[in-house]
Design a protein that fits this description.
homodimer, mainly alpha, Farnesyl Diphosphate Synthase, two-stranded antiparallel sheet, 15 helices, about 70% helix
Chain lengths: ~290, ~290
C-alpha cells in the first residue's frame, strides 16, 4: 500500500472533479467565483472526499459515481474554513500559505463565498447516483445537514468561541471537537460506506472508524500548532496559545495528548478488523492522520 | 376570500411548526439558539412558507405534510437576512423593529446563526414526506440549493453589492433581483406545486406566477423604502438612497415602477387562469404583495 501515491492520485481526481463541477472562475459574478476558486483550489489535503471514496472502496462499492458527492464535502469543509478565518471569528490572515479569503478579497465577499460553498455542497450531495436509491441519498443528505449544523460543525464552532479565554476540561474539549471537526470526518466515512452499498454493520464500523480518526486528527492539529513549522503548515503556529485556547496539549500535556491520539488510531484500526484488503487505504490513512507534518 | 384571516391562520401554523421543529432556545450552545430564535421568531410575514402551502393547495395537494419543508424556506430566508444585515454587507441595525442579530449578539454569533439556519433549511427540506417519492423530494432539494446558491440568492447579493455606488440599467437591476429575491419566491411556488402533486403544466404555471410576484415584491420593497413609514416597517427607510443603491424608483421613476409592479401582478393572475377556486389564496396574495405597507 503506497499511501503517498494513493493520496496523490485521489487528490488529483478530486481536484479535477471540483474544477469540472463548479463554474469557471470567470463566471458572473466574477468576484464571487474568484473568491470561491481562491479558497477551494488552494491545495487542500482533500481528506474528507478521499475518505468518502476510500470507505466506498472498503465495502466493495464504486468510487467514480460518488465523486460529485465527495466534492460536496470538500466545498462544505472549505466554507467552514472561510467563515472561521473571518475577523469576527478566529481572525486568521494566512491559510495554506495564501492570504485567507477576506484578506485577498474583503469580508462581504468571504461571507458570501462561504455561503455559496455551503449551499453548493447540498447541490452536489443531492445529485442522483447510478445504482443508489433516492431514499438512501435523501437519508444521507439529511444526515449531512445534521452533522454540519447546530448539532454538529456550526454548534461546535460556537462552543469553541465560547470556550475562549477560560479553562475547559477534557470532557468539554472532546465534546466541542466531536461537533466541530469530528462530525464531518465521521460523516464522510459513514456516507461513503452507505453510498458504497455497505451493510448496516459495515456502515457502523466505518462510522466508528471515522469518529476515532476525527479525534486523532484534531489532537494532531493541536500538537502541530505547538510543535509544527509554520513554513510547512502554510499558516501561523502558536495561535492557540496566543488566543488562550484550550487544546489537548494544554489540557492534558504533550505526552498524554500524543498517547490519546495513538490510542484513537489503534481504535480506528480495530474497527477495520472485519474488512479485507479493500480497507488497506483506510488503514494507511489512519496512520497518516497522526504522522502528518501539516 | 378573507386574506387577512388566511394569512393570520397560516402564519400561526408556520410559527408553531418552527417552534416545534427547531431546538428550544435553551439548547446548547445557548447563545447560538438564542440568536437563531431572536431572528427567526421576530414576527416575519412567513411569505415563502405560506406560498409553499398555498401552491400545494392550489393543485389539490395536502398542506400539512409540507410544513417542515415550508419552514425550511423560512429558515433559509432568515439566514439571508442575518448575513445581509452584517456590517460588512448592508450594515443594518434594525430589522422588524428589533436590533439585528449582530447588534443583539455579536458578529461571530450572527455569522454562525446564519450558517446554522442555512444548514437546517436543508435538514428540513430533505425529510421524507408521506405520499411523495424520494426522487421528487431529492429533485426539489437540489433545486433549492441551485436557487439559493451562486446562481441564485448568494450570487444576487454579490451582484447587488458590486452594483453599489454606480448607476445600473433596468436590465441589470432585474437580473440582480431575479437572483437575489426572485429565486427563492419562485422556488417556493414551484416546490409547493411539485410537492403538492401538481401536473407539469401546473408546476410551470405556478413557477411563472412566483417569478412575477417575486419581481412585484422587490419593486414594492423599493417603493416602501422611498415612501414607507419606518415605524410601520420596523426598519430604517431611505436607506437605498443613502447607500447610493440603484432601485426601481431610482432607475425608472416612481410612476413607472408602480406600473411595472401592477403589470407583474396582472401577469401573475394570468398564470392562474386555469386554476379553480383552490387558487383563490394565491390570487389574493398577489394583490397583497403590492398593497402591503411593510
Amino acid at each position: 500500500m503506497d499511501l503517498k501515491h494513493y493520496l496523490q492520485t485521489n487528490r488529483a481526481l478530486v481536484d479535477t472533479a471540483l474544477q469540472s463541477l463548479l463554474p469557471a472562475v470567470g463566471t458572473l459574478p466574477v468576484r464571487l467565483h474568484q473568491a470561491i476558486h481562491h479558497s477551494l483550489m488552494a491545495g487542500g489535503k482533500r481528506l474528507r472526499p478521499i475518505l468518502v471514496l476510500a470507505c466506498a472502496e472498503a465495502v466493495g462499492g464504486m468510487r467514480e459515481p460518488l465523486l460529485p458527492f465527495a466534492c460536496g464535502l470538500e466545498c462544505l469543509h472549505t466554507y467552514s474554513l472561510i467563515h472561521d478565518d473571518l475577523p469576527a471569528m478566529d481572525n486568521d490572515d494566512l491559510r495554506r500559505g495564501r492570504p485567507t479569503c477576506h484578506k485577498q478579497f474583503d469580508e462581504a465577499t468571504a461571507i458570501l463565498a462561504g455561503d455559496a460553498l455551503l449551499t453548493v455542497a447540498f447541490e452536489l450531495a443531492s445529485r442522483p447516483i447510478v445504482g443508489i436509491t433516492a431514499e438512501t441519498i435523501l437519508h444521507v443528505v439529511r444526515q449531512l445537514a445534521i452533522d454540519a449544523g447546530f448539532s454538529g460543525m456550526v454548534g461546535g464552532q460556537m462552543m469553541d468561541l465560547l470556550a475562549e479565554n477560560r479553562q475547559v476540561d477534557l470532557e468539554e474539549l472532546r465534546s466541542i471537537h466531536r461537533m466541530k471537526t469530528g462530525a464531518l470526518i465521521r460523516f464522510a466515512c459513514e456516507s461513503g460506506a452507505r453510498l458504497g452499498g455497505g451493510s448496516g454493520e459495515q456502515v457502523e464500523a466505518l462510522k466508528n472508524y471515522g469518529a476515532a480518526i476525527g479525534l486523532a486528527f484534531q489532537i494532531t492539529d493541536d500538537l502541530l500548532d505547538v510543535t509544527g513549522d509554520s513554513r510547512i503548515m502554510g499558516k501561523a503556529t502558536g495561535k492557540d496559545h496566543d488566543n488562550a485556547k484550550s487544546t489537548y496539549p494544554s489540557v492534558m500535556g504533550l505526552p498524554s495528548a500524543r498517547t490519546l491520539a495513538e490510542e484513537q488510531i489503534q481504535l480506528a484500526l480495530d474497527h477495520l478488523k472485519n474488512f479485507a484488503s479493500s480497507a488497506d487505504p483506510l488503514r494507511a490513512l489512519a496512520r497518516y492522520i497522526i504522522e502528518r507534518t501539516h
